[in-house]
Amino acid sequence: MVYSFRLYDQTGSPVALEDYKKKWVVLYFYPKNSVSFAKVMLEKFCEYKNKFKRRGATILLINPESVSSNFMLPYREIKILSDPGKDVMRQYNVIMERELESKVYETIIPTIFLIGPSLELVRKWENAREPYILDEVLKTIDLIKSHSRLSKR
Q1: Helix, strand, coil shares of the chain as percentages rounded to 5?
Q2: Virtual torsion, Cα 76, 47, 127, 123, nearest 10 deg
Q3: Is 56 left (phi over 0), alpha (psi -120 to 50) or beta?
């Protein structure tokens, strides 16, 4: 299921999912900018930005960091959205609670949601910590688009 949201990117500009109707959206939730796999994924998303753009897809990354924390990142070519209250993360069910020594901790499961042009969920990849997953996302877009073209004939 896809939920609408309005968050702020690293420049402080508002971003709503509805702004991307009629486009593919690659929505990536991740825990913190400082996590080692997150840095690798951020760099890979930047590297793949044009590949997604050629397919009519927009990349939106969401983390619980503040706008000012995301502003400090060197990745200006992609939108990194702040969800400090984790409200959108809860809607998309990417938070897992774990108990350790009688304390409950929230863990954010790195997850990619591929959202279609009608703002429908196409596919979800959980535990998305490895860059090769971006190739799978691109292949999924290509496959659906080619199937759509064939069915219109």
Answers
A1: 35, 30, 35
A2: 100
A3: left
Give the integer Cα–Cα distance in Å for 153 and 145. 13
The number of beta carbons lying within 10 Å of the beta carbon of residue 133 is 17
Neighbours of 109 (CB within 10 A): 17
Beta-strand runs (E) in 64-147:
79-82, 95-100, 103-108, 111-115, 121-125
Q: In what side-by-side order are the strands of the sheet with 57-63?
A: 14-16, 6-8, 79-82, 57-63, 24-29, 111-115, 121-125
* 48 in Cβ contact with 134 (< 8 Å): yes
Task: Sort 61 into a burial class: Cβ within 10 Å, 0-12 / 13-18 / 19+.
Answer: buried
Angle 119-120-126 from CA coordinates, rounded to 5°? 115
pLDDT (tens digit per residue) in 75-107: 777 899 999 999 999 999 999 988 888 888 889
**CATH assignment of 6-151?**
3.40.30.10
Q: Where are the domains of the chain?
A: 6-151
Single pTM value for the model: 0.91
Q: Quote the CA–CA distance of 68 and 29 in Å, as a whole number.
A: 18
Tokens of 114: 């591929």
